[in-house]
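Many introductory courses stop at the sequence. We go one step further.
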Amino acid sequence: MEARAGHRSTTARGFAAMAVLASVLAVAGCETGPSGELTSVDVAQGSSQNISSLSAVIQRNPSDPEAYNVRGSAYGRGGRYREALRDFDKAIELRPNFYQAYSNRALIHRFLGDQQAALADYNRSIQINANYDAAYIGRGNLYRRAGQNQQAFNDFQKAIQLDTTDPRAYHNRGLLYQAQGQHAFAIEDFSTAISLAPDAAEPYNGRGLSYLATNDEDNAFADFNTAIKLDGKIAESWANQALVYERRGEKQKAAKSYAEAARLDPEYAPAREGLARTRAG
């Protein structure tokens, strides 16, 4: 009788863990993908330039659309979205077929909450240059956030067919595979994203969740730990680590990790719910 009771307890714990994982996967599917999207705008040197030095460049040559595009990128990285928008507007005014500026401006529109303007700019960028991978990735992410998963998949697929080296295409396609339960494909895409951006924590979290969904607990745990080492300020990483501890019955360690996740993001539901479960009793 004791063995049966233990079996029932283990089974119940397994069902509970799978339900929690399903909840975490649902939340993960809503994430935006790798952080720092503005680091992927077309003119990469914008991230290393000082705003004042870029302004000096513009003062010397106020008719240079490239300069406005670079400074707009720098403004965007600094969260100064209105200034970024004005610079991208100016770049497009000076060069009406500046497809990179359209794509960059689309991201700013998205951050400002104007999804229709963002979509229009991505469409215009692609109309000008049908081989511009960044515009497909940006539009795909816009579609994914709107729940238009097939359109999103098509755009990420197109970027990948164009031989993009942007990890967001693989990461975001991996999230879509993951949401469909196609974890083998998701793991492959997350692994490619990791190879392209080995210092990004998000693909490790994504791959870890798919490993966990296929009961590969050791690889999942290794990925979550790596995500924490790369960036210890992401609540999802700590909550994912806690989920493995919880599955293993290590409630004290799980509660500690859930608590850190909740501290980093008090609104992150898996952290709050996990903390309540593991501290109960």
